[in-house]
Amino acid sequence: MNARVLDGEIITSRLDDIRAYDGVRTRRVLAFAIDYLIVGLLSIPFAVLVLLLGLITFGLGWALYGLLLPVVALTYVWFTLGSTDQATTGMKLMNLRLERLDGRPVDGIFAMVHSVLFWAGNVILTPLVLLITLFSDRKRTLHDLLLGTVVVRTDR
Questions:
Q1: What is the pLDDT of residue 1?
Q2: Has residue 11 got a pLDDT over 90?
Q3: What long-range pairs does 36-45 form, CB within 8 A, spacing at least 24?
Q4: Which pLDDT score, from 0 to 100, does residue 12 have?
Q5: Which residues form the RDD domain (predicted)?
Q6: Which of 10, 19, 127, 35 is nearest to 90 (CA)?
Q7: What is the spatial distance between Cα 114 and Cα 98, in angstroms, rounded to a whole number?
Q8: Contact 77, 88 (CB under 8 A)
């Protein structure tokens, strides 16, 4: 065990250091806004392709507009949060990283499940998703609690 003492407190893991969670809630909200701006911008070229496909198929292709944003968002999450950095572009800009409590790395499928639970939680329990962070340990959201993850600062 690689334990160290910090301000009279024994720290056994980087995830036990309370400084890793300072300002995480605000940074997560800002990272979310940045990420969804990026997803919106990435959706534009695909929206043009769906427009052209709809013209070619006499309007049938326009049904793909309903799937456009979720597919782009999930692909974005797969390749960013599911990468070795374990952070989306917005999270990197805010110095955040998603960690699993069991120590295993976050892969693409796990990242997508994390995002889908986030979206489902917001649809069903909108105010509770952020309110839970006020009372949970390590400022974890509902989907973090369900999946055994935590978001930590990388600059601490």
A1: 42
A2: no
A3: 36/73, 38/76, 38/89, 38/90, 39/69, 39/72, 39/73, 39/76, 42/72, 42/76, 43/68, 43/69, 43/72
A4: 53
A5: 26-147
A6: 35
A7: 10
A8: yes
